[in-house]
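ok, trying the design again with the full structure, not the truncated one.
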C-alpha cells in the first residue's frame, strides 16, 4: 500500500453531523488496517473521548489529541509528547472572555477546567455531557501539576470571529487556531496537527510521501499540507479545500470511506 500512515480528523470528517460513525467508514477503515496501513485519529478532542471511537473502529497504537498538542499511546494512555504552555500568559485572554461573557476551558492532557463549574451555562454543560467530560473549577496557575496544553474559547460565531480578529493583533505568544465555527484554541506556538503527524511519522520511520491525511477545518490545514496526500472533506471551508490536494465527499456521505477506497484500496 502506498500510504503507510493515515491521519484522520474526527468531528466533521470521520463522524457525521450527528457525531456518529457510519458502517461504511468503519468497514473501510478495518480493510485498510487489514492491508497493513496504520491509522491515527488526529483531533481537537481530549484523549478521554477519542479512545471510545478508537475502540469502535478496532484501532490501537497512537492518538493525536488537543489539535496536536498531545501524542500518546492509546493502549495505556502513556503521553509520548506534549507541548505545554504558560498559563499566566492566558490571563489577558481570560479577562477578555470574562468581560465579554465568553465561555472558556483550560486543558491538560487528560483534565479540563472551567471558570466555575457550579455556574456552567446550559450550552457548555450540554457540550461537556455530550463529550462525556467532567470539568473541574479552575485552580490557581501554581496549583497545576501537569502541563497546560490547550485553552479553548466557546461562544457564538459572531463573538468568536470578532475575538479572533482582536486577538490576532496581540502578538504571537500562542498558536491561535479556529477549530470549529464556535471554537478557538490556544496552544504552544509549535503545537499543530501537522507537527504531531510529522513527529509520529518519524517515530514510525514513515516517509512524508507515505502519509495521507483527511480533514475538514482550519485546524486540519497543517496536516493536509504536510501529508504526501492531503484530502479535504466536501463540507470544508474553501480555504481548507484549497490547502488540500484533493476533495472527497462530505462527512454525511461517508467521504472518508470514499477517499480510502480510492487512494488506498483501489
Amino acid at each position: 500500500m502506498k500510504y503507510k500512515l493515515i491521519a484522520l480528523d474526527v468531528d466533521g470528517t470521520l463522524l457525521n453531523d450527528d457525531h456518529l460513525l457510519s458502517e461504511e467508514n468503519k468497514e473501510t477503515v478495518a480493510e485498510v488496517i487489514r492491508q497493513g496501513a496504520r491509522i491515527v485519529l488526529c483531533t481537537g478532542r481530549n484523549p478521554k473521548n477519542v479512545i471510545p471511537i478508537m475502540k469502535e473502529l478496532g484501532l490501537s497504537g497512537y492518538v493525536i489529541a488537543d489539535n496536536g498538542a498531545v501524542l500518546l499511546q492509546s493502549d495505556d494512555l502513556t503521553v509520548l509528547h506534549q507541548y505545554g504552555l504558560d498559563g499566566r500568559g492566558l490571563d489577558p485572554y481570560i479577562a477578555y472572555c470574562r468581560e465579554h461573557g465568553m465561555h472558556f476551558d483550560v486543558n491538560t492532557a487528560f483534565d479540563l477546567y472551567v471558570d466555575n463549574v457550579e455556574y456552567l451555562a446550559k450550552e457548555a454543560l450540554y457540550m461537556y455531557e455530550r463529550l462525556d467530560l467532567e470539568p473541574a473549577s479552575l485552580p490557581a496557575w501554581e496549583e497545576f501539576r501537569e502541563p497546560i496544553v490547550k485553552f479553548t474559547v466557546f461562544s457564538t460565531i459572531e463573538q468568536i470571529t470578532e475575538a479572533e480578529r482582536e486577538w490576532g493583533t496581540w502578538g504571537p505568544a500562542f498558536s491561535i487556531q479556529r477549530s470549529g465555527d464556535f471554537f478557538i484554541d490556544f496552544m504552544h506556538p509549535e503545537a499543530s496537527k501537522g507537527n504531531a503527524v510529522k513527529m509520529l511519522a518519524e517515530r514510525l520511520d514513515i516517509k512524508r510521501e507515505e502519509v495521507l491525511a483527511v480533514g475538514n477545518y482550519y485546524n486540519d490545514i497543517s496536516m493536509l499540507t504536510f501529508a504526501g496526500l492531503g484530502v479535504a472533506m466536501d463540507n470544508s471551508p474553501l480555504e481548507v479545500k484549497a490547502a488540500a490536494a484533493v476533495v472527497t465527499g462530505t462527512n454525511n456521505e461517508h467521504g472518508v470511506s470514499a477517499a480510502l477506497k480510492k487512494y488506498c484500496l483501489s
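Keeping the full-length input from now on. The first helix runs from residue 23 to 34.
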